[in-house]
Automatic annotation (TrEMBL):
Designated name of the protein: Chitooligosaccharide deacetylase
PROSITE patterns attached to this UniProt entry: NODB (PS51677)
Domain NodB homology: 68-286
Function (record text): Is involved in generating a small heat-stable compound (Nod), an acylated oligomer of N-acetylglucosamine, that stimulates mitosis in various plant protoplasts.
SUPFAM superfamilies on file: Glycoside hydrolase/deacetylase, UraD-Like
Length: 471
């Protein structure tokens, strides 16, 4: 099957009500990445020094050598930056989630003790703070297992959340397959958590952020001052808070690093933001595991059959009657590049309509002639499809007076004689009177005009039918 795996529809235009505790208008979640001591370093068995996310401009790895300046910048994060942030968040009574690199945590027993004393969540940030994109699948699987083992040994409990960061295309799947994580955060694709089906596993995803993130102090374009960081966070918060007031509460993630935001001039911007949001009612500042627990309880996953994952036979069985007695449309649609966007009514409607529109005029005429007359002989004999029966009943066409039935019969006969196909209208857009008015108006159209209109109505009928079956 030709299938496109990326999901670019998500919740679409109708996201769920997050229903945050206390009816909060926005959930603001702070992540502190603890990577110091887990970065690339020949002391750690790596080929060279680190070259990512520091205040050294234009840095490059030093193969086979220690980079003293780089090491000292990372050391600052553990020695000074962490403690500044620890004081800031504990004073504000805001718990944070630590993304802890297991090998870094093993080299920081005092910081780990402080995290635990503050009741901060310590999620896993992998075994080492290194690039994973070129890792073989089995090597990465082994690294995940070792990260869990070492984390559990150092912290005393296994991690319930995971974020690799410098991940591969396999990371999310491998972590989900491990089976023990309440959430994975290696995505940046939504303002709300969502469920991802990985084999038999329903894995909760809590998206993270790379823009409301102090890493932008070390990348271009990025932040130069703490004030710029504060202003960006404030703007994001203000918009999300307003959306929450309008009934659509969301989640805001803030990403932090000890060696970056831990510097005084940058930390000042973070402090301003913390003070700012504490001036609002209806702001929930949870750990990520608290979000995971809430979402699993409030929005448990429910699996459903998905069109893009169906076999051809099942797809045609399910959707072959969407266009009246024309299963060939579904057969052709199954060969398209279907994906998550086609697992909802609008997306699947688009795929089916593409096949109808690209068909020959003769084939489309066959679809039109497959439709029954409105309130005609088939309806009287109760020989309509279930869909047509329900549609005609919805407009009262199953309860016509003798005079109305006579008029419909006259119009049906005249219309078919003139145009060569039945009068077609999406009856769910109308009532009995407006259907009769449209009938009397359209019968005077030329055939080309009416052929085009009939095709539009067929597509509209298909849309209604799909919305009865899919979200």
């Amino acid at each position: 099957m030709n299938r496109y795996p990326r999901n670019m529809i998500g919740y679409g235009a109708t996201p769920p009500d997050a229903a945050w505790p206390g009816k909060a208008k926005v959930a603001v979640q702070f992540v502190l990445n603890f990577e110091e001591g887990g970065e690339n370093n020949i002391l750690h068995g790596d080929a060279g020094s680190e070259a990512f996310l520091s205040d050294i401009a234009g840095v490059a790895p030093w193969p086979g050598q220690r980079h003293w300046n780089m090491e000292s910048i990372y050391d600052y994060g553990a020695r000074a930056g962490f403690w500044r942030l620890h004081r800031m968040f504990t004073a504000a009574d805001i718990p944070v989630t630590i993304y802890g690199v297991a090998s870094a945590l093993a080299r920081a027993p005092e910081q780990v003790a402080a995290m635990k004393a503050a009741d901060w969540e310590i999620a896993s940030h992998g075994l080492k703070w290194v690039e994973h994109k070129d890792m073989a699948e089995e090597e990465e699987r082994a690294a995940i297992a070792e990260a869990i083992r070492l984390h559990t040994e150092v912290v005393g409990t296994r991690p319930r959340g995971w974020y690799t960061g410098r991940c591969s295309e396999n990371t999310v799947r491998l972590v989900a397959e491990e089976g023990g994580f309440d959430y994975v955060s290696d995505t940046y694709d939504d303002d709300l958590p969502y469920w991802l089906e990985v084999g038999a596993r329903d894995q909760l995803i809590i998206p993270y952020t790379l823009e409301a993130n102090d890493m932008r102090f070390a990348t271009a374009p990025g932040y130069i001052t703490g004030e710029q960081f504060y202003q960006y966070l404030k703007d994001a918060f203000d918009l999300l808070y307003a959306e929450g007031e309008a009934g659509a509460p969301k989640m805001m993630s803030v990403g932090l690093h000890c060696r970056l935001i831990g510097r005084p001039g940058k930390a000042a911007g973070l402090k301003r933001f913390i003070d700012y949001i504490q001036g609002f009612d209806g702001v929930w500042c949870p750990r990520r595991i608290d979000i995971a627990d809430h979402w699993a309880k409030t929005h448990p996953h429910q699996r459903r059959e998905r069109p893009s994952q169906m076999t051809r036979a099942r797809f045609v069985e399910a959707y072959g009657g969407i266009f009246e007695h024309s299963p060939w449309i579904a057969e052709r649609a199954h060969d398209l590049e279907l994906g998550p966007a086609h697992d909802r009514a609008i997306g699947l409607h688009n795929a089916l309509c593409r096949m109808f529109r690209s068909a020959s005029e003769e084939e489309r005429l066959g679809v039109l002639t497959a439709h029954p007359d409105l309130a005609g002989k088939l309806a009287a004999a109760k020989r309509l499809t279930a869909e047509s029966t329900n549609e005609q009943a919805s407009a009262g066409l199953d309860a016509l007076t003798d005079a109305e039935r006579t008029r419909f019969t006259q119009l049906n006969t005249a219309y078919v004689e003139k145009h060569g196909f039945p009068f077609i209208i999406a009856v769910r857009d109308h009532d009995k009177a407006s259907i009769l008015a449209a009938f009397e108006r359209r019968i005077s159209h030329d055939r080309a005009c009416e052929f085009a209109e009939a095709c539009r109505q067929v597509e509209r009928i298909a849309e209604f039918r799909l919305k009865d079956l899919l979200p």
